[in-house]
């Protein structure tokens, strides 16, 4: 449905989008993730027709959109600050796009009612926008974006201003809603939990380029680079040299999957793969911090050699701060991160990385 080919946008000397190739299939939900300034909003604006390209093409249903103004592209947009019209009631806001598309009144009213049902605000047509909660306003904004039945809905930080619990709830509702409607979605967020809960596919951006693209679980299990791994919050990363089926690291020798290329690389160990062992064999560490996460505890460990480690354990097994522990590493949680040239986006980032399994 949507294809970007070599899309580039420059602001003076700054390259906001750097030769981006991206496709979104019909009915697919794609979430673009990335740090601040990585080009996420610029990407959306380029697709919407609000930002001209300096190079490359945007195609919708195979048609080049060069010169097609935003309102003729058939895309629905929902921005972070959701910009509802304060002087219109809920029904007036949702009907806005329908009026613009000259849908007659007798068809508008049932459409608005159906959309409000869909977003969980049945019968809210006559309520004033100002008296709605943040989450309710967000739903109205969504209903307004969906009303003209756009072929593609684009969401910029759709749940940006809401608190965590409301986000977690709404993101599940959104996914269900999009599935029900068969909506094609391109969303942008810097919240990885939101992206992973909403998306069929996540696209991680770095400095105007795509650092990795894939189903959420794949990206989570096999980050393509140190950048992606760190962006996802993995910190157990160290330099390594692979030889004869093992990686030699500051933490000791770690098992790596068969077929891992020999030579220097970075190694990630997921916190679940840092195993507490009785004193003896393994890497001695001191427990320097504990963070409670539901029934689990994240332990911050200071090893006798090598960088700090995060481990995860059950509440009842959690050693006290200051305790001495020994750790071993589970092979299935060791991930080899392909090398990336220092200071540049990764040219081979779309290739599947080698993963410990
Ligand atoms: N109108 C503009 N003029 C100049 N530079 C701009 C303009 N819009 C964006 N940029 C620059 O382009 C780069 C990408 O910006 P963009 O807003 O797309 O990033 P983002 O990933 O959406 O960031 P955030 O998460 O902070 O919204 C940034 O370096 C930004 O400063």
From TrEMBL:
It holds the Pfam family ABC_tran. Residues 2-232 form the ABC transporter domain. GO terms for molecular function: ATP binding. It comes from the Bacteria. Keywords: ATP-binding, Nucleotide-binding, Transport. InterPro entries: AAA+_ATPase (IPR003593), ABC_SmlMolc_Importer (IPR050093), ABC_transporter-like_ATP-bd (IPR003439), ABC_transporter-like_CS (IPR017871), Mo/tungstate-bd_C_term_dom (IPR008995), P-loop_NTPase (IPR027417), Transp-assoc_OB_typ2 (IPR013611). This is ABC transporter ATP-binding protein. It comes from Actinacidiphila acididurans.
